[in-house]
Design goal:
single chain; mainly beta; Jelly Rolls; seven-stranded antiparallel β-sheet
Length: about 375
């Protein structure tokens, strides 16, 4: 079916790679081999293409919309079940192609090199133009390192614990392609306190608590279609009994948000916290107390504090760490991490990097002095 597909020359074991796919050529072998049962991610980076440069516009690997697709002669599709210009993939000599469009997470059902092409039959490539660039990598599971799902900064005072964390940002807009290829996907921005030296937020190694509040931008699937959903959220996360974020109210992409989490003492043996999440555009606000269970020490829940950009940890159905949707750059400012009664002026700082997924820019100043930093999307 693929011509050169039976040869694996030039393909190496799976490693992160960027690959340009031309619309004027059929199946094109990428530089990596996939292994049956392993999980991989593919992400759209740049470029556009068209299946008819004289009559139809250039689009990305998500292909043409249904309304445009219906205007194109249907006899030239490589896969008649998928719209024109959708990026297709196949593994080795397999006869089964699958739609990739803008990318996502998938488990290889066979072993061999990954091939990519535009959804347009070989006999009809003459009027095509353009190319798209995709990023392909083995998928990093949570067990590969908790820091890979977090970006941002935190601080720990050399004496005592943290009393509060505050920050301001705009709700990141996410791109949700209309494909069932994608797994669960979201990007969350939150302020919070958490416990343990050198522990990433939400680590499973010890009994760490994490009171947090912020926003979630996610792609929610309804059948084969993904829709963007934006919500203000809070969570009292316990590493031993992890729970999802709890929604507070709907927000809009690019709304300016303010959030604060504060440790206010104890109540009947429980640690007591206060959160405040405010949408400065609409005036919507939620404030309330939330609590740990009894017997938790301040170091378990307020050892450090900071501002974090997070990708979803693990899909409860598949067990796969979540896909990071493409999001608009996030600039986090007005950062405050401190103590109500300062017992020390010395702090230890931590930087959390979502390596391979999002880039964390350096702080403009210390995060307990109103500093700012940005996080930009890199890959799925």
């Amino acid at each position: 079916m693929l011509g050169a597909a039976s040869s694996v020359a030039g393909a190496s074991p799976a490693a992160a790679a960027t690959f340009s796919v031309s619309s004027t050529v059929g199946w094109q072998q990428t530089t990596i081999n996939l292994t049956a049962g392993d999980t991989y991610s593919v992400a759209y980076e740049s470029g556009t293409w068209t299946v008819d440069y004289r009559n139809f516009p250039y689009v990305g690997p998500e292909g043409y919309s249904n309304s445009v697709d219906q205007k194109i002669y249907q006899g030239c599709k490589y896969d008649p079940k998928v719209n024109y210009a959708v990026l297709l993939g196949v593994i080795g000599d397999s006869a089964t192609a699958f739609p990739i469009d803008e990318g996502g997470v998938f488990t290889a059902n066979s072993t061999g090199p990954l091939y990519l092409r535009v959804n347009d039959d070989d006999a009809c490539l003459g009027d095509n133009a353009g190319s798209v660039t995709m990023y392909i990598s083995p998928f990093q599971h949570l067990s590969d390192g908790t820091a890979s799902i977090y970006a941002g900064y935190s601080l720990h005072p050399n004496q005592g614990t943290v009393s509060y964390a505050t920050a301001q940002w705009k709700v990141p807009a996410v791109s949700c392609a209309s494909s069932s290829f994608k797994e669960r996907s979201q990007v969350a921005v939150w302020v919070g306190l958490w416990g343990g030296p050198n522990n990433a937020p939400g680590t499973y190694e010890s009994n760490i608590w994490l009171p947090q509040a912020g926003t979630v931008s996610q792609c929610a699937r309804f059948g084969p279609i993904s829709h963007s959903v934006y919500q203000a959220v809070y969570q009292m996360y316990n590493s031993r009994t992890a729970t999802d974020f709890k929604p507070l109210f709907d927000v809009n992409a690019n709304d300016t948000m303010f959030a604060q989490v504060e440790y206010v003492g104890t109540h009947q043996g429980e640690l007591k916290f206060w959160y405040d999440v405010t949408d400065k555009n609409t005036g919507a606000q939620s404030q309330n107390y939330f609590y740990t269970s009894k017997g938790v020490t301040p170091s378990d829940a307020a050892y450090q504090g900071g501002v974090i950009v997070e990708r979803v940890m693990k899909d409860p159905k598949t067990g796969i760490s979540g896909y990071l949707p493409k999001f608009s750059p996030i600039n986090i400012s007005h950062i405050g991490v401190g103590q109500d009664s300062a017992t020390t002026n010395e702090w230890t700082g931590y930087r959390w990097d979502m390596k391979g997924y999002a880039k964390t820019e350096p702080l403009t100043s210390s995060p307990n002095q109103g500093g700012s930093f940005s996080v930009t999307w890199q890959h799925a």
